[in-house]
């Protein structure tokens, strides 16, 4: 069943087990206001409850132009802090949750748009995508988690360069910089992200949960702590009933083999 819901700024539909969530304020290039981020938050909670994976994309010519600057102009310092913390909460529900998230990026992926994209696990860009952090030019700083998430993806030196110089990075460069994992022809990002999400949705829930929640944490641990924690997660997942069923299916030749990308 395809259940499509449209709120003021967000479209939501189920494609099989995958939630397809669209940023839908194209006339303002999907700039994110306070109301908009709350709508994203509600869509995130719904996807966490009913989907096995989710895809985030932007309606119109761009993925997202970042923070709604018109709204930001009128804020006091403490309102700004609360606003930033709210973005952190909502994006954190994407980053550390029960399901994998994919983003389909095109056009501008700018400021808070890049911060939102940085909170998902897998980013697919089409060739029209470009990435920028114009906070320096606007007299502000990242506030949607970019100093943590985007910096960890591309590295502090590259992010510093983008913020100081206003540099725009195209999709191919973004792939080299580890900002995106896939680059596809124009107009094909949603299709590709849906394909990847549908594949991830068939994984064991416990494996997906471990990948999403353990890998980023382990990468911030010392080597010896990371290896120690890995052993427990490894044993816990491998001894689950789901793993037993899947391992048996492979041994009985009922499960697909790993694909050789070079095979015809
Ligand atoms: C906006 C916003 C916005 C567009 N807030 N209204 N983000 C930025 O600094 C990016 C600013 N935007 C742009 O550079 C360009 O709009 C784009 C390159 C993204 C797209 O260009 P284009 O030619 O397709 O659209 P446009 O004509 O510039 O914009 C269409 C309308 O959207 C226009 O309003 P209109 O009433 O004149 O039609 C724009 O004013 C409006 N618009 N972007 C508000 N961001 C949690 S901290 C995060 C900090 C940040 O995100 S800083 C980065 C902010």
Strand tally is 10
Strand proportion: 15-25%
**Ligand set:** 3-methylmercaptopropionate-CoA (MMPA-CoA)
Radius of gyration: 19 Å
Any idea what the CATH architecture of the largest domain is? Answer: Alpha-Beta Complex
Mean pLDDT: 96
CATH class of the largest domain: Alpha Beta
Describe what this molecule looks like in 3D:
The protein is α/β, with parallel strands linked by helices and 264 residues long. The chain folds into two domains: 10-202, 2-enoyl-CoA Hydratase, Chain A, domain 1 (Alpha-Beta Complex), CATH 3.90.226.10; 205-252, Lyase 2-enoyl-coa Hydratase, Chain  A, domain 2, CATH 1.10.12.10. The protein is 48% helix and 16% strand. It contains twelve helices and ten strands. Strands 1-2-3-4-5-7-10 form a seven-stranded mixed β-sheet, with helices on both faces. Strands 6-8-9 form a three-stranded mixed β-sheet. A hairpin with a 2-residue loop joins strand 2 and strand 3. The mean pLDDT is 96. Residues 28-29, 31, 61-62, 65-70, 84, 87, 108, 110-112, 134-135, 138, 140, 142-144 line the site of 3-methylmercaptopropionate-CoA (MMPA-CoA) (1HE).
């Amino acid at each position: 069943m395809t259940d499509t819901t449209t709120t003021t700024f967000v479209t939501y539909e189920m494609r099989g087990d995958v939630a397809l969530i669209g940023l839908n304020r194209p006339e303002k290039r999907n700039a994110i206001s306070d109301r908009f981020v709350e709508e994203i938050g509600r869509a995130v909670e719904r996807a966490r409850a009913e989907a096995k994976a989710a895809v985030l994309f932007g309606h119109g010519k761009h993925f997202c132009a970042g923070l709604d600057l018109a709204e930001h102009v009128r804020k006091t310092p403490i309102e700004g802090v609360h606003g930033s913390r709210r973005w952190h909460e909502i994006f954190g529900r994407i980053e550390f949750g029960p399901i994998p998230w994919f983003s389909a990026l095109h056009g501008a992926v700018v400021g808070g748009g890049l911060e939102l994209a940085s909170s998902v696990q897998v980013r697919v860009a089409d060739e029209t995508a470009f990435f920028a952090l114009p906070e320096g030019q606007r007299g502000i700083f990242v506030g949607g988690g970019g100093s943590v998430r985007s910096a960890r993806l591309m590295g502090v030196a590259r992010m510093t360069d983008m913020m100081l110089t206003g540099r725009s990075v195209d999709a191919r460069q973004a792939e080299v910089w580890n900002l995106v994992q896939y680059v596809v022809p124009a107009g094909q990002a949603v299709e590709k992200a849906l394909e990847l999400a549908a594949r991830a949705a068939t994984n064991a829930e416990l494996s997906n949960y471990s990948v999403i929640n353990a890998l980023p944490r382990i990468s911030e641990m010392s080597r010896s702590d990371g290896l120690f924690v890995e052993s427990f997660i490894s044993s816990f997942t491998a001894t689950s009933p789901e793993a037993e069923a899947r391992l048996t299916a492979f041994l009985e030749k009922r499960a697909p083999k790993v694909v050789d990308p070079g095979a015809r």
